[in-house]
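Practice problem 4.
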């Protein structure tokens, strides 16, 4: 049997503003109510449309488990699912085993992205034009060659981190973050994609998918510098790029 891929846990800003009396069970309840209401308004039920019979453990519950894990800064999905099963199974009595949960989590990624955007809209965070743009190397395993092994995640490759002056095997994500620290977009690319072509690929995806970035201002470091790209982004997408110039 093929090992299921792990879903991506995104570390959102910690819930420090909540009172100490606000328990994690309360957090699960609030997140589920928001997610389930949005799912019903968007898709007509707590499950995404599918040809087969709708599962009893709904997509709203899957999304709620993932989002609470992100709010609690759970570093790995395996440990987080083990914690939920050990301490909060009474809230999710029909929670499937890990492999099936991971497959369900992969299928709801598009809906999860749309819900995160809806949360930004509710918080008025999408009204502010400034976005911080940065990339980072994401090693997935040690830098050793094992000939009989396969790549753990599709799209991975060897990359070079100039700041650390070292090679790694993994991905090179591009993050677009609001001033408040909320992740607006996370674009995954192979490790050999350096900043300039990485931003080109992301902007091309924005144009292809019709992502509305008009009026926004993205601030990035010198790795993204390109006068031609700045003109292209402004004329085609209405996007202003503020890139630090090279010394």
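Answer key:
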């Amino acid at each position: 049997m093929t090992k299921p891929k792990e879903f991506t846990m995104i570390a959102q800003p910690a819930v420090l503003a909540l009172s100490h009396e606000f328990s994690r069970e309360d957090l699960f309840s609030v997140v589920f109510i928001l997610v389930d209401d949005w799912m019903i308004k968007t898709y007509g039920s707590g499950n995404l449309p599918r040809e087969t019979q709708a599962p009893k453990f709904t997509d709203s519950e899957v999304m709620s488990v993932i989002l609470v894990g992100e709010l609690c800064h759970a570093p790995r999905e395996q440990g987080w699912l083990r914690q939920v099963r050990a301490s909060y199974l009474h809230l999710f009595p029909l929670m499937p085993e890990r492999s099936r949960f991971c497959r369900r989590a992969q299928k709801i990624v598009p809906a999860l992205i749309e819900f995160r955007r809806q949360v930004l809209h509710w918080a008025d965070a999408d009204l502010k034009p400034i976005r911080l743009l940065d990339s980072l190397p994401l090693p997935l395993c040690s830098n050793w060659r094992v000939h009989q092994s396969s790549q753990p995640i599709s799209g991975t490759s060897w990359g070079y981190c100039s700041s650390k002056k070292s090679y790694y095997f993994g991905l090179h994500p591009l993050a677009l973050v609001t001033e408040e620290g909320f992740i607006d977009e996370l674009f995954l690319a192979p490790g050999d994609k350096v900043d300039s072509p990485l931003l080109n690929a992301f902007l091309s995806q924005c144009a292809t998918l019709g992502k509305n970035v008009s009026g926004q201002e993205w601030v990035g470091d010198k790795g993204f510098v390109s006068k031609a790209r700045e003109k292209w982004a402004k004329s085609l997408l209405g996007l202003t790029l503020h890139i630090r110039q090279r010394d």
